[in-house]
Fold these 3 entries.
Entry 1:
Amino acid sequence: MQFRNGIWLAATALVLGACATLQPVETGQKMIGSTEASVRDAFGKPTETYPLGDGTSRWIYSKQPLGYAVYAADFDAGGKLANFRQMLTEQEIYTARPGVWTKRDVAERFGMPREPVQYYPLMKREAWSYRLYVAGYQPAHFSAYFDDRGVLDRTMIIVDPLGGDDHSSSK
């Protein structure tokens, strides 16, 4: 009987892991209220963790630099999953507050950049870049520019001219 229970548990873990890989947002949303241990079992070790000011915490699961997603698992003060979402969306990016946010704020929202950090001496700006999809799976780059004090100066989304949908090309 223990052998069957072991197989059942292993199969359940395998299915949950497959769902977390194929549909991470849907899987994470179904896990709201779960413990940190359950989230770690489903998604693995986070790439970054941040204690937030209100006693909550955020785990970042970055698929950068080659992927197009950064997922955030937000936990309440009791360690229960309160929200799980994809952070590299236009809606999330438009919440950025130039002149207010710092590098820490951007990192808490989108994770640390996995692309090389660029510095533009004429602008005196450091740029962090992330890959994302916009407007129906159009590959693009999101950049956050910081002044020399580490304060967010501006954000920019640039569509990748080489990316896009193969279906529109003539055959």
Entry 2:
Amino acid sequence: MLEDDTELADVLIQYLSKFNISVRNFEDPYLALSAIALEDFDLIILDLTLPGMDGLEVCKELVTKYDIPIIISSARSDITDKVIALELGADDYLPKPYDPRELEVRIKTILRRFNKNISKDAEEQKELFVLDEEKQEITKAGKFIKFTAAEFQIMSLMCKRKGFVVSRYDILDSCDLFNSDEDSGSIAVIINRIRHKIENNPKNPRHFLTIRGMGYKLVE
């Protein structure tokens, strides 16, 4: 992976490791190109905004020298960048922000297309918390959890942004049952109720974490 956002890289590395997908990240494109020349990699996740060298130039060099599939991961909104990247030979383009689950699925799809090995453990690995938006249900390890409407809205948001920090503002902005700062105090109460439903020890949560000064994070 070539990604200079170390926080994002850490989240993706941690998430993908659950599916036995091992990831090394390089912030410096020159170091990355040196490593790729010496080692075998199954796939490259490439950010376009990198220090010292534009991601499109990196993409061009990779396509010219190596037969390695490339997923572009970029916050650039210019459609021209996407077109150029795909014309250069990138295999996929994933605009930021995105759900790590989508990256995982795209990695597996591309590796299958390139006949790369994916362990059965990675294929069979299931997520602990699963949101079914159509049924309006959330399960933990396959077991249905009954939530109130407010609990469900918060937990749904956390499932969609699993592994990322969600601020109180994000909750107020995304959950229509909370429509003002006056409701902010009740968020902590509801999260405490959620923890009693999903945690083995609500006083020492392992999954629904408080990130001091920033918000909350759902991890597995």
Entry 3:
Amino acid sequence: MCDSNISVFPLHRRRKLVEGIARVLESKNGEDANAFWRSTATTILVQLSESGIAPRLAEQEVRTLLHAVIDDIATRNAAKFAQ
């Protein structure tokens, strides 16, 4: 199987996706949070694969999405503490 030349709108730029995942993760702790993220990441990887995105690119997109989610959580927490 060949790597594709298809590119996607970067997941980390999809604000509603990032914020939605961040809100759910903030409401969970420990293994519940880990399980939610693993499930979410797997679902997204499957969707990207079915769309013809190369596996390495799909994995990179999901990693970058996770960083955006973590940044979103940190930014919101910093804003709460600043008030």
